[in-house]
């Protein structure tokens, strides 16, 4: 399927930006959300995108991570 749940643990209140990129580097989806202290759960819906490999960038004021999604 194309629905993904993402759990982000935060030690403080801040903002987070999610961005999904195609394997060629084109941004195809992004969203900004507020984080609360503790466990935060976000849904990412990629059902409208073709099967393939995507990169998910997660960025807060203090940290950044990139994850590979295989759909």
3D structure, described in words:
- With 71 residues, the chain is mainly beta.
- The chain has strands at 3-10, 14-22, 27-35, 38-45, 53-60, 64-70.
- The chain contains no helices and six strands.
- The strands form two sheets. The protein has a four-stranded antiparallel β-sheet, with no helix packed on it.
- Strand 5 and strand 6 (64-70) form a beta hairpin.
- The mean pLDDT is 95.
Query: Biggest sheet, in brief?
Result: 4 strands, antiparallel
Order of strands, main sheet, comes to 3-2-5-6
Total strand count, please? 6
Q: Could you tell me the strand content as a percent range?
A: over 45%
Overall pLDDT score: 95
Structural class: mainly beta
- Portion in helices: under 10%
Given the C-alpha coordinates, what overall shape results?
A: globular
Q: What count of helical segments does DSSP give?
A: 0
Radius of gyration: 12 Å
Provide keyphrases for this structure.
71 residues; mainly beta; 4-stranded antiparallel β-sheet; two-stranded antiparallel sheet; globular
What topology does this entry show?
Blueprint: E1 3-10, E2 14-22, E3 27-35, E4 38-45, E5 53-60, E6 64-70
Antiparallel strand pairs: 1-4, 2-3, 2-5, 5-6
Short structural description:
By secondary structure, the protein is mostly beta strands.
């Amino acid at each position: 399927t194309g629905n993904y749940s993402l759990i982000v643990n935060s030690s403080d209140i801040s903002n987070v930006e999610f961005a999904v990129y195609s394997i060629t580097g084109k941004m195809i989806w992004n969203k900004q959300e507020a984080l609360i202290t503790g466990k935060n759960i976000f849904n990412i819906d990629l059902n409208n995108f073709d099967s393939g490999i995507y990169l998910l960038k997660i960025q807060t004021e203090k940290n950044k991570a990139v994850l590979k999604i295989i759909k």
